[in-house]
Design a protein that fits this description.
Structural class of chain B: alpha/beta
Radius of gyration of chain B: 27 Å
Structural class of chain A: alpha+beta
Helix content of chain A: 25-40%
Shape of chain B: globular
Distance between the termini of chain B: 59 Å
Mean pLDDT of chain A: 89
Number of helices of chain B: 11
Strand order of the largest sheet of chain B: 9-6-10-12-13-14-17-18
Low-confidence stretches of chain B: none
Helix content of chain B: 10-25%
Number of strands of chain A: 23
Radius of gyration of chain A: 32 Å
Low-confidence stretches of chain A: none
Largest interface: A-B, 61 and 65 residues
Strand content of chain B: 15-25%
Mean pLDDT of chain B: 92
Oligomer: heterodimer
Chain lengths: ~650, ~450
């Protein structure tokens, strides 16, 4: 009886019960840049991005043997790829530390303060003494080959719905390079982002459906933004998601571009794992286990030299070679569906692309393929060359001889892994919501102490100072806003807005109407943006002045907007003395003047006259009178202009 | 009975706390503190860290420190001791390949990581090196011998002599080439002294180290090792050389003559440079490309001149404005037999030092002048001051580097006290420590920021 009978439904039809059936579990690892002036372990400026570079450096990465005499799986994989790594250096953003030609400087204290503050908001147990570790990466994304990273706190939580999501740990670490290209055996990086301080928040695998994962990501995002200590904008926060199903493996998906994409990505990963487990069942049924797995390979260059299949024909003409690999007992299984519109053959071709560096696609064809590749007679010749029986599938790869040799090995490796289950991997998020292979998942083993820096004590005094400056948790603020009946669409943005503190002061200390304040602080800036103005020019000091006038009834709500607009234009705010509410006489005079002007212009719709007159008067008296007061006069006057 | 190692490195408050709960190093524990509960393995404490914290390694692999005074309870669930045993892998033997000997003096040219504890373990035997850098098996048959293991700033005559004697032995046994692993800080001092202690070797003697620790994936160690072993096995340059990176990129190494090379930056991979001349050759994984032809060629005989003289009472004095004569006087009063001055400009010191210099000459102390600027010749005829000093017995050392003059003077004074003989030894070049001429490309220091220089740098890899 199959353990994996459940069939995945289309995304929109899956229910919470379905996810429970497959044992869906998911956790988040969120990397968030901190808003500091300098980088974490050197004095370079943080946050400057540029494609311009002054110099290039070439490096190679070699793995370090562990005490067991074995290489870490990832390290071995990266070593197999034998990449040349090119780093583009911009003098303004990078010093000899980033180039790995100078030891680290002391940790940036602001970054540590920010990290500790956020750790407190997560109710984490903070460490007394920080120990900086080296986490090895061999893909070249960091020139030293390792990232300096440290743990600031463990075991905390955030509220979510009616329960708590566990926070396993919060780490403080340096950011990596930005990849420019990865073609064949050459990978190019820009180094501007390298070394910027990041916090890494790791949750427990507590989310039970794809939507929960995205919602929790939003909760975490809003919480850190409420501190004002994190960078915003593209790339400042990156989410990685872990997914596993019953009997599967914890798989990490990296490069999730935006939180709304998370549900579809996690759904596909759960589906992929589930389908790989079903594939394993099928293989076992056919008698194929890791022990009985067999494959064989042969060079088939001569056979394929005359093929009409362009990718191979052109490559061989340029001097490439081709090999065929027979996978015994795998007939039809390369077509086994893994994700939506994706088949098992892609799992294998991904390995060929990443590990053997055959990056030009298509990089593999197989004898059960549903698309047209080789002619059937040529397939027969190939099958014969590799002695494939009718139970076997044959895959063909082509390219430079060394790479093809690696590819042949990788095909056999991945096929054998299918008989074990779901291999430990890091996957990359793809645009359509599916995912592809990125690298073998590194074990927890590739970390060791960074002896270049001493351990750092976290004192009680420091913690007390940080605790005093902490903002009220986001969820507490939101609850209060709802109590004060703020419009629903304002509650969430205000809670994380830099004006949340100001808002609280205006309402609690000055008695200003919360809805008026919220609308002015959150909705009106959007209107300014639409007018092409920059609401970032509004300072807290300016807002206080404006609201003080409102508090004292010297200006109306319209007046608040008018002055905010002036401030956003960079204009000076008028002296307080100049601002006074319009007197009855002024209102009367203005109505008369505007009515006169109205008489001289043509109004298309007489019924709209009052409205037009209203507009003229309000513009003239901008901000100094409430609309309601004017309306009566206007309606009276409008009748008179008919 | 618990031994000292059971609480390795812990002292004071931290030790007391661990003892109270019987929680030894390597125990699997749950530690409950006033801040929370933490689960992991207790690690040894570093000697330079304070006595107030306990270090544990969490399951995730991270280390954290907990304040001993905040510990309320430690529960132990197991203990597994650490054993740094490295499994041997055989270095492959090929009768067609040349035999190269690697002598270890210190520095870590290759290492392994114990991920469980985070320790970096030096890898040195041929098997261990083969495991780290399997490419070596394609080049030669490698044997290794650890002579001693000191940080290079702790090197001295004892180490120089032992190394020179070991080299002599290996040459006698018919080795094809010698590689010496050495810390980089004083590699140039050792290269210089070995150039005098080991004369006319028939085979290449190549010193090598790594600027970036060999446990990191980006280390220059592996490539330096490959380059130096290739040189020892294949090149026809029979001299004492230093082999380190050319540019900071992984591109090629340089073979520098041992008497003209110097470490010029505290940390850059490209720190070693030949001063006042060009290097002997470039070396890559594929080829050795001589940049000049005036080097001593490999021979098939097994003879070499070993002379391990060394007088310890020699000093370098780095002149600075307002230096007082009592500095020189104290050297004289402490029985120093030789002084090398690194003077300013063409080789100058101030007038107040003259009486002390006179005193030194009268006491038969050998005083030699070199230049702080490193590049260029001492020329003491140009100014009166120089001429005066020569009258006082200060001998110009041409374009010998200050550190090289220091070791050579120690070597000379170790052989004779006769000033005339010392002078003959000092001023007769043995291994390029003094050159007859400085070519125009002996001093090529590009200045950053100049447009054409920046353009040049941006078009090539550094």
């Amino acid at each position: 009886m199959s353990e994996y009978r459940f069939e995945f439904k289309p995304y929109a039809e899956m229910t919470a019960a379905d996810y429970a059936e497959v044992g869906f579990r998911s956790g988040l690892e969120i990397h968030q840049q901190l808003l500091t002036e300098k980088k974490l372990f050197c004095r370079c400026p943080a946050g400057r991005y540029s494609d311009h570079y002054d110099a290039e450096i070439l490096r190679h990465m070699r793995p370090t043997l562990s005490e067991l005499g074995e290489y870490d799986g990832t390290a071995l994989m990266e070593f197999k790829t034998k990449k040349e790594i090119i780093y583009r250096i911009n003098r303004e953003t990078v010093c000899t530390y980033e180039m790995d030609d100078t030891p680290p400087f002391m940790m940036d204290e602001t970054a540590l303060d920010f990290a500790l503050g956020i750790a407190m908001l997560y109710s984490l147990n903070l460490v007394d003494e920080l120990h900086i570790a080296r986490k090895q990466y061999l893909d070249g994304s960091i020139p030293t080959g390792f990232q300096r990273t440290t743990i600031v706190g463990v075991t905390g939580w955030v509220p979510y719905k009616d329960r708590r999501v566990s926070i396993v740990q919060l780490g403080l670490e340096e950011d990596a390079c930005r990849e420019v290209s990865d073609i064949g055996h050459r990978r190019v990086y820009l180094t501007d982002r390298l070394g910027m301080p990041l916090i890494e928040t790791v949750t427990g695998p507590d989310m039970r459906t794809p939507v929960e994962v995205a919602e929790v990501a939003q909760v975490l995002r809003r919480l850190v933004r409420s501190t004002g200590h994190v960078r915003t904008g593209m790339g400042a926060a990156r989410e990685d998601v872990n997914v596993s199903v019953r009997g599967g493996t914890r798989i990490e998906i990296k490069g999730v571009p935006r939180i709304p994409r998370i549900p579809l990505l996690t759904y596909h990963e759960a589906m992929r794992q589930w389908n790989l487990l079903r594939l394993r069942e099928e293989l076992h049924r056919r008698g194929v286990t890791p022990e009985t797995f067999r494959s064989s390979s042969e060079d088939v260059t001569k056979i394929l030299v005359k093929t009409s299949y362009e990718p191979i024909r052109d490559a061989l003409a340029a001097g490439a070679v081709a090999s065929a690999v027979a996978l015994r007992g795998f007939r039809d299984l390369l077509n086994w569906q893994t994700q939506t519109n994706t088949r098992f053959s892609r799992e294998i071709s991904d390995r060929v692309r990443v590990v053997a560096c055959l990056t030009k696609l298509p990089n593999m064809i197989h004898s059960d393929s549903l698309s047209e590749t080789l002619s059937s007679s040529r397939w027969d010749s190939v099958r014969k060359a590799v002695q494939a029986s009718s139970d076997d599938v044959v895959a063909v790869v082509w390219g430079p001889a060394e790479d093809v040799k690696t590819a042949v090995q990788e095909i056999a490796i991945r096929a054998r892994e299918a008989a074990t289950g779901v291999p430990s991997e890091t996957r990359q998020a793809l645009r359509d919501g599916t995912n592809g292979f990125e690298r073998i998942l590194p074990g927890p083993d590739r970390m060791y102490p960074d002896t270049d820096l001493p351990p750092k004590q976290v004192t009680e005094e420091r913690l007390a100072r940080i605790r005093d400056g902490l903002p009220v948790p986001v969820w507490t603020r939101e609850a209060w806003y709802r109590e004060r009946r703020l419009p629903a669409d304002v509650v969430e943005p205000l809670a994380v807005s830099p004006w949340a503190g100001l808002f609280e002061g205006l309402v609690k200390d000055w008695g200003i109407d919360p809805v008026a304040a919220a609308v002015a602080l959150i909705q009106f800036p959007k209107r300014l943006k639409r007018k092409g103005l920059d609401p970032e020019r509004l300072t807290e000091a300016a807002l206080r002045r404006i609201f003080a006038l409102y508090r004292d009834r010297r200006i109306s709500r319209e007046g608040v907007y008018a002055l905010m607009e002036r401030a956003a234009r960079g204009q000076d705010l008028p002296e307080i003395a100049e601002i006074h509410p319009a007197t009855d006489e002024e209102i009367y005079a203005q109505v008369v003047e505007s009515a006169g002007a109205l008489k001289r212009t043509k109004v298309h719709d007489p019924a709209k006259k009052a409205h037009v007159l209203m507009g003229l008067v309000m513009t003239a008296l901008r901000g100094r009178v409430e609309g309601a007061t004017v309306r009566e006069r206007v309606e009276a006057a409008a009748e008179g202009t008919c | 009975m618990a031994g000292n190692d059971d609480y390795k490195g812990y002292r004071g408050e931290a030790l007391e706390t661990l003892r109270t709960f019987g929680a030894m190093v390597w125990s699997d524990v749950d530690i409950k503190t006033s801040r929370g509960t933490y689960t992991g393995i207790i690690l040894p404490r570093s000697e330079t860290a304070d006595a107030l914290h306990i270090v544990i390694k969490l399951r995730s692999g991270y280390n954290i420190g907990l304040a001993a005074k905040s510990v309320e309870l430690i529960t132990i669930s197991g203990r597994k001791e650490a054993h740094y045993k490295i499994p041997e892998k055989e270095f492959p033997f090929d009768p067609a390949k040349p035999r190269v000997k690697l002598l270890g003096t210190g520095g870590t040219i290759a290492s392994r990581l114990d991920y469980r504890t985070g320790a970096v373990i030096p890898a040195f035997s041929p098997g261990e090196l083969y495991g780290s850098v399997p490419e070596l098996g394609d080049i030669c048959n490698l044997e290794t011998e650890k002579l001693f293991g000191v940080f290079s700033e702790n090197m001295g005559p004892e180490q120089y002599i032992a190394t020179a004697q070991a080299i002599g032995r290996e040459i006698e046994k018919g080795v094809h080439g010698i590689v010496i692993g050495h810390g980089t800080d004083t590699m140039h001092h050792t290269a210089a002294i070995l150039s005098f202690m080991v004369q006319d070797p028939p085979v290449p003697i190549v010193m090598v180290g790594s600027q970036r620790s060999s446990d990191r994936p980006s280390s220059d160690a592996a490539l330096n090792l490959m380059h130096s072993v290739k040189t020892a096995a294949e090149s026809d340059i029979a001299e004492v050389m230093v082999c380190m990176f050319g540019p900071t990129s992984d591109m090629y190494g340089l073979l520098h003559r041992g008497t003209r090379v110097r470490k010029m930056h505290s940390s850059y991979r490209s720190t070693f440079r030949t001063v006042g001349d060009i290097p002997i050759a470039m070396v890559s994984r594929e080829a050795i490309m001589p940049l000049r032809q005036d080097y001593k060629r490999r021979r098939t005989d097994r003879s070499v001149k070993i002379n391990t003289a060394f007088e310890e009472k020699v000093s370098i004095v780095y002149y600075y404005p307002n230096m007082r004569p009592d500095i020189i006087d104290s050297l004289i009063d402490n029985g120093y037999r030789g002084i090398v001055i690194a003077g300013t400009g063409l080789g100058h010191v101030n007038k107040p030092l003259y009486p002390a210099l006179k005193r030194a000459r009268d006491k038969g102390i050998a005083v030699y002048m070199t230049v702080q600027t490193l590049w260029g010749y001492v020329q003491m005829y140009v100014y009166d001051t120089g001429r005066d000093m020569m009258e006082l017995g200060v001998i110009p050392a041409a374009n010998m580097l200050p550190e090289v003059a220091y070791v050579k003077l120690a070597w000379a004074l170790g052989q004779t006290s006769d000033p005339a003989e010392v002078r003959r030894i000092m001023l007769t070049p043995i291994a390029g420590e003094i050159t007859e001429r400085e070519p125009s490309n002996g001093y090529l220091i590009f200045q950053g920021g100049i447009p054409e220089v920046e353009e040049f740098i941006s078009t090539i890899k550094k």
